[in-house]
Amino acid sequence: MRGVTTPPRGLALPTLSPPTRRALRIILIVSAGVGVILGIQTLALHATMDPLNDLRVYYDAGARLNAGQPLYATGAIDSVGLYLYPPLLAIVFRPLARLPFEVVAVGWQLMILAALGLTLRRTGLKEPVLIALGWLALPIAWALVIGQAEPLLTLMLAIGSPITVAIATNLKVFPILVAVYWVGRRDWRSLWRLVAALAMLLAVQLVLEPAATLDWLRLTWLRPAFDVRSISPFAIHPILWVVTVIGLAAISFRLAPTRFGWAAAVCLAVLAYPRLLVYQLMTLLAAFAGPGEERPA
User: How far is CA 206 from CA 90, 194, 210, 212, in A?
Assistant: First the structure.
């Protein structure tokens, strides 16, 4: 029809006056600086309190499998914590658990530092990313000092291919929620590739560790998973968590065709954890990258 124009796809952002933009930029930079200070304090705290704690959990999980013990049995072997993930990471640690822990620790820490570096290479070191780094300094420092797998998961989502999302899902399950990005874009090819990759990884785990895989599918690990101090709305009330997740999913679906689509999907995947620990927030860095987007510094 004449005289009718089609609005551009995406969302229109409000226009701020120059003084407002300058004031907002100062607030963001100062708050990022505060975040860096908190990150340094967190690094020092956990370096003295529980250094490489989560790496020890992965190492001991591999040792349990090597010893023919149940992966999810709480008393099967002495460890500093419970292994709560799908079996894939424990399977990877089987050969590593035959090496001295100190040797594994050096290699693992170098790998997760490299993963963080590759994530930043994909995002590019633009000002918004640097500000986000400041805000997320506390969870990043926490994840690194305890040897968490979170930096690897963050890299997988920063790449954002169906295969890397499948790997991330087999680390901590909830990365599967970024699939709302492909649903909202009607990208059925990527969805089928994700399903195929998930099926392949499940088959590998069933072949290599059938008992552990079936135990995980039976959710035998679920009850002790919540014996932590979670920052999820689930810790307040399950209904609040359900409403929050539904709201985030609806927003992510709506934004999927826009340039904010991947960022919204990553926020959904991170914030939807019913067992959400502070260090998991580092994966929000992946919101600055995404499928097929390598952003130069």
Answer: 13, 18, 4, 8
